[in-house]
Amino acid sequence: MSVFAQEKSITGKVIDEEGIPIPSVTVSIKGTSTGTVTDFDGMYSILAKAQDTILFSFIGFESQEVLVGDRNIINITLAENTAELEEVVVVGYGTQKRSDVTGSVASVPEERLENLPVTDVTQTIQGTTAGLNITQGSSVPGSSGSI
Length: 147
Known about the structure:
The chain is mainly beta and 147 residues long.
């Protein structure tokens, strides 16, 4: 058994170009199903071998691959990739390329969301999208509706 093939704990922090931690970055061992995500502070921990390559990916940022080698701490700075954002649709259960989305997709302008005196996002989008039905389940102030 070779020492080279033994797994070790790799830890680190993932930040953006301004030094802000990025939560929920996917951190995985390339070519395997082993992976984790960064916590709220951009921190992660994963078991890897020296010959493994760690892949860091997150929507809106360029992915990075790093060979583990003899390091135990790998800190990463991800660069923004705004072109990728135009190609992706975030849905309630994951992400999809815009060309792969079936069914109807509607968007609500950001200005509409900012300028209304409402307490719930369902109140904001009510009446903005054809076929979207929002039902108020209660008259209690602050209660949300059903979509």
